[in-house]
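Slide 14.
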Amino acid sequence: MSPAFAARFAADWQRVWGDDRPVGLAVSGGADSLALLLLACAALPGRFAVATVDHGLRPEAAGEAAAVARLCAAWNVPHTTLCLTLAAGSAIQERARDARYAALAGWQQGAGLAALVTAHHADDQAETLLMRFNRGSGLRGLAGMRPMARVPGHEAPLLRPLLGWRRAELSEIVAFAGVVAADDPSNHDVRYERVRVRQALAQADWLDPAAIAASAAHLAEADAALDWAVARDLHTIAAMPDGLAFDPADVPRVLTLRMLERIVMQLAQGTPRGRDLARWHDLLAGGAVATLAGVRGDGRARPWRFTRAPAHRRLRKSEGGA
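Slide 15: predicted structure.
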């Protein structure tokens, strides 16, 4: 491996984590995750373990996991194969993602590892941003993947030290090492949105995935600034005997949405989806009484008032004739 690549990864790792505790790498056997493994071997010797998930969806997956295990054994890296049983059917990629993260989080916790590390890179980030633009996502969604986040559905840190790297660079690292990467056929299946976006990006040579990924990073900075502003102004959410009150007068809509999110988190310990939160806001702004994620909001007067709602109630335009 090029010493420059190893030094670059070490610097990226220090920025993202900067902690000497051992971590767990998710390595599927594809080129991206194998490059992550090779970079970690060069920069983090003795400070990580590896897990490979076999979703049980392809007969080749067991052999791919075994190949990763052999590489890890040759390089003295602890390796675990996590076997899942998923039924084929609708939303398979989403279900596989959820099951994969759950299995990896359980492994990471059980092995006493401080964080989970994935090989998401700049091209992944660009694809994610374009997909979310196409869905009308808000600022939080457009901020894309963060270098440090939480494992979905879990509290463990999720690290992505390769967000500044291109797919071609990672493939170069693997090719130089003489390692043969697995090729999951789903990565070429145009039934999946990400594959269609990836192919469209490849065909549009005037689009620069690195610049798109940089835009996601700028949006993430703006998103963090909103969180900072909300934290500074949390005193504007007033306690009531049975809930909370908030006056949105003269507050920009984007900040009001973050305040509403904090209210839901405080009263119901849940995090609502951005689209549902925006709809809730618009109902309240129209003078309705509406419920979201177990929180009843009353927008008929100022300040808006919020209380816990019965668990069976769902978001709707009005309640009780309001």
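Speaker note: The chain is about 45% helix and 15% strand.
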